[in-house]
Amino acid sequence: MQGEVEHANIDVVDLEATVAFLTTALPHFKVRHRGKTVDGVAWLHIGTDSTYLALNQLGPDDSSECNRLNHVGFVVEDAEAVKRRCLGAGYEEGFVTAAHPYRKRVYILDQEGLEWEFVEYLSEDVEKRNDYSEA
Questions:
Q1: Could you say which DSSP state residue 122 is in?
Q2: Is 103 exposed, middle or buried (0-12, 13-18, 19+ CB in 10 A)?
Q3: What is the pTM of this model?
Q4: Number of structural domains, the chain?
Q5: Where in the sequence is the domain holding 16, given as residue range(s)?
Q6: Side-chain-side CA neighbours of residue 126 (13 Å)
Q7: Where residue 83 sits, what CATH number does that domain have?
Q8: Which residues contact 14 (CB under 8 A, 6 or more apart)?
Q9: Using 50, 70 and 90 to split pLDDT, how confident is the model at 113?
């Protein structure tokens, strides 16, 4: 599973319309979780137990930013090793997350400022891997 694409994070104008489209096109996709950012922005994860799309609701003033890719997440064996390699090569760290008991996440900005996420799972248990209680 090393280097497997786990998810893509995308901004959309109409969250529910996008869910309707995706579940029509891919009936096996289910909404895994819904939430709001600290700024009150609605988001959700839709997909399967092992792969998903993270969708963020754009505000009315943000519609010109429609369908903007925020980042792609890769499953890796050692997130800290990825971070050390990238920082050592001159890349910058991006978003920093709180510690989670079942996964480590590292975000790195590439040369164009695009953010890439690398996630190391600390459990083989799907329920724990997809735990949102401390996300």
A1: S
A2: buried
A3: 0.70
A4: 1
A5: 5-129
A6: 5
A7: 3.10.180.10
A8: 57
A9: confident
- Given a contact cutoff of 8 angstroms between Cβ atoms, the answer to whether 45 and 32 are in contact is yes
Strand ranges in 1-135 using DSSP code E only, listed in sequence order = 5-12, 30-36, 42-47, 52-57, 69-75, 92-93, 103-109, 115-121
Pair 102, 93: CB distance under 8 Å: no
Amino acid at residue number 32? R
Token code pair at residue 94: 């991006």
| pLDDT 10s digits, 77-88 | 999 999 999 999
Q: What is the tens place of the pLDDT at every residue in 22-71?
A: 888 788 999 999 999 888 889 999 999 989 999 999 876 765 555 588 88
CA-angle at 55, arms to 101 and 94, nearest 5°: 55
Token pair 């029509």: residue: 24
Residue 99 tokens, joined = 């510690």
